[in-house]
Every structure is written in structure tokens, then in C-alpha cells.
């Protein structure tokens, strides 16, 4: 199959779907598929509406002679992909691993509504957020949407009203385990983008309070490459994800691969999925985040969690993910050629 991968970011860019797109491309090519990348590149320098139109034209040219499109994100790439799918009828999958409207609202207002709640307070949205919602709803109605968890899928089905037959779940990769090195210090890893929804300021205050009881705990922050993150994680004490919400944080999976417990927001598609291997907290409560930090710093709690993580043996490789994407695209191709259409 000849497939266009359309993405706004790609290595060396740092970001969740940058690494995902690269690994998916490699897995698809390994299975014999021909992959063409369609990247934003210098179009990122243009104003929003202009770059969306330009990227749509770029994708329209890239899709000539191709069988299908896999697009990443829920706005900058997804909207042009939806328009192109409407024009060409090419089978198109959009991987929706985040929520553009919610992220935009949080960054603009710093009104820390968890993701499920932002749609219950549409009166607080500005014109841009209202238009974005309507554009996403229209564009994605013309594609099939791939979610990473049922949690975000259910939210979008309720709020956007998509046809459930056009929605699917392909879980994130869980690659084989790495060596877990006993930590020499109680360092909590908090490597993430410097954006409001990551809830960094409140978490730092909670950690400062927790240090009164556990003066040996430390916080490591910043942005580093994926390879460097794994290297540091292997010898770390724990991983923290105190975001206002997180759909399917890959760093939680990586912590399990490295044998490390985690602290995570309760507003996540992974809250139930991986609850036994970490500590869940309310990110809107500094007291509750402090409680979670102190629990993880407790040697008895830590020992129980690491013992449970040692039994975690799930594997879901990028080869598996590539096959799942191809199965969906094959199904869409067969439907498009069906005489009944």
C-alpha cells in the first residue's frame, strides 16, 4: 500500500506524535508499504489560516498516486486532511491523541478545567475556540478518527457527535521492558513541554511542602530527547505527570518499561488502565498532589508498586500498530470500491 503520513512535527522536532510518526513510518516500511511524508516544514512560519490552506494544497499534491492518508493531530493537519479527504475520497485516518480546543482554552485563560469539563462551559470560550470546534467537527466528519484510548473517544463522541462507525481505538505502543537500575536518590522526573496544562507551578509548590516530610526528594525538569529520557528514567526514582488532564501519556508507559512507579493526574485515559502501578492525584488540589508525592516517597508504598510493576509484561509494538492501521485502511478501501456505495 502507498500511504502518505501527514504530520506537523517529525524528528528532530520533540513531541509526542513526532516520535510516533517516525516509528510508525519505519514499521510500515518494514512491512513492505511505501511511505511518503508530508510535513509542514517552513509553512509553520505563516499565519494560521494561510498555513492551513497551503498545507492542504501540499497534501493534495502529495496524495496523487497514493492509496491512503494517515494524519496526525486534531487541527493543524487534521483539518486540511479532512478537506482533502472530502475532495478526493481517499481513505483517510486521523490520529487524535489530544484535544486542540481544550489545550487552546487552557493556554489562553489558565482556567484549569479538566478536559471532560471544558465542553460543559462553552460560555467561557472565545470566538477562536468556538470556530475551532465547528471546523474540527466538520472536517473530521469526512475521515475516520483513530483515538489512543476509549476515554477520549467517548468524550468526543458525546461532544462532537461523530458517527461511531467512523471512530476507532489503536492503543499506544508498549515496547519490551528495559533494564531497571536501582535509584541512588529520590529524584522525580518531570520532563514536559513548558505549557500551562502541565500544571508545573502548582506541582512545584506541592513538592516543596512534601519536602518538609521527605527532605531527600528532588525534582528534575526540562525537555530532553526521547533516548535521553529513557536513559535517565532507568536509574530514576519515579515519574510524575501532574497535568490538568492527559489523554494517554507515553511517559507513563515508558516508566513501566523502566520499572518505575509514577504519580499521575486522575483525569486521564490511563487512570483506570494503569492505576495499580502508580499513585493517582487530583491536579486541581495541591494538598492531594502533596499526598501523592509523600506516598511515593514512602519506602513501603514504593516497594509494593515496584513489585507490581515487575509483573507487568504487556507488549504492543509499532509493528502491531502498523498492522492495525493497515487493517483499517484496507477496510476503508474495500468499502470505497463496494458496488453498493
Write the layout of secondary structure elements.
Blueprint: E1 2-7, H1 16-30, E2 34-39, H2 48-62, E3 68-72, H3 78-88, E4 92-96, H4 100-109, H5 115-118, H6 127-140, E5 144-147, H7 150-160, E6 167-169, E7 186-191, H8 200-210, E8 217-222, H9 226-234, E9 238-241, H10 250-257, E10 262-265, E11 278-281, H11 286-297, H12 299-310, H13 318-336
Parallel strand pairs: 1-2, 1-3, 3-4, 4-5, 5-6, 7-8, 7-9, 9-10, 10-11
Helix pairs in contact: 1-13, 2-3, 3-6, 4-6, 8-11
Name the features.
341 residues; alpha/beta; Rossmann fold; 2 domains; 6-stranded parallel beta sheet; 5-stranded parallel beta sheet; 13 helices; 16% strand; globular
Give a quick summary of the entry.
The chain is of the alpha/beta class and 341 residues long.
Amino acid at each position: 500500500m502507498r500511504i502518505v503520513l501527514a504530520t506537523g512535527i517529525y524528528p528532530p522536532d520533540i513531541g509526542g506524535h513526532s516520535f510516533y510518526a517516525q516509528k510508525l513510518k519505519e514499521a510500515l516500511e518494514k512491512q513492505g508499504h511505501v511511505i511518503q511524508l508530508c510535513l509542514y516544514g517552513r509553512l509553520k512560519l505563516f499565519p494560521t489560516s494561510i498555513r492551513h490552506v497551503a498545507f492542504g494544497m501540499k497534501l493534495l499534491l502529495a496524495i496523487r498516486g497514493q492509496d491512503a492518508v494517515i494524519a496526525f493531530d486534531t487541527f493543524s493537519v487534521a483539518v486540511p486532511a479532512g478537506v482533502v479527504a472530502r475532495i478526493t475520497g481517499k481513505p483517510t485516518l486521523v490520529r487524535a491523541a489530544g484535544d486542540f480546543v481544550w489545550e487552546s482554552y487552557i493556554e489562553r485563560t489558565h482556567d484549569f478545567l479538566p478536559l471532560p469539563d471544558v465542553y460543559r462551559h462553552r460560555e467561557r470560550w472565545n470566538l477562536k475556540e468556538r470556530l475551532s470546534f465547528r471546523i474540527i467537527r466538520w472536517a473530521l466528519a469526512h475521515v475516520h478518527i483513530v483515538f489512543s484510548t476509549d476515554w477520549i473517544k467517548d468524550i468526543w463522541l458525546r461532544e462532537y457527535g461523530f458517527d461511531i462507525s467512523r471512530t476507532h481505538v489503536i492503543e499506544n505502543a508498549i515496547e519490551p521492558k528495559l533494564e531497571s537500575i536501582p535509584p541512588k536518590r529520590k529524584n522525580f522526573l518531570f520532563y514536559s513541554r513548558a505549557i500551562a496544562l502541565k500544571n508545573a507551578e502548582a506541582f512545584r509548590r506541592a513538592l516543596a511542602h512534601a519536602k518538609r516530610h521527605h527532605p531527600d526528594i528532588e525534582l528534575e525538569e526540562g525537555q530532553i530527547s526521547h533516548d535521553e529520557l529513557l536513559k535517565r528514567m532507568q536509574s530514576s526514582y519515579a515519574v510524575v505527570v501532574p497535568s490538568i488532564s492527559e489523554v494517554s501519556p507515553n511517559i507513563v508507559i515508558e516508566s513501566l518499561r523502566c520499572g518505575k512507579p509514577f504519580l499521575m493526574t486522575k483525569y486521564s485515559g490511563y487512570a483506570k488502565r494503569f492505576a495499580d502501578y502508580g499513585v493517582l492525584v487530583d491536579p486541581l488540589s495541591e494538598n492531594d498532589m502533596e499526598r501523592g508525592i509523600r506516598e511515593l516517597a514512602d519506602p513501603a508504598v514504593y516497594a509494593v508498586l515496584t513489585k507490581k510493576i515487575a509483573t507487568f509484561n504487556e507488549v504492543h509494538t509499532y509493528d502491531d500498530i502498523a498492522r492495525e492501521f493497515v487493517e483499517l485502511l484496507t477496510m476503508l478501501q474495500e468499502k470505497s470500491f463496494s458496488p453498493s456505495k
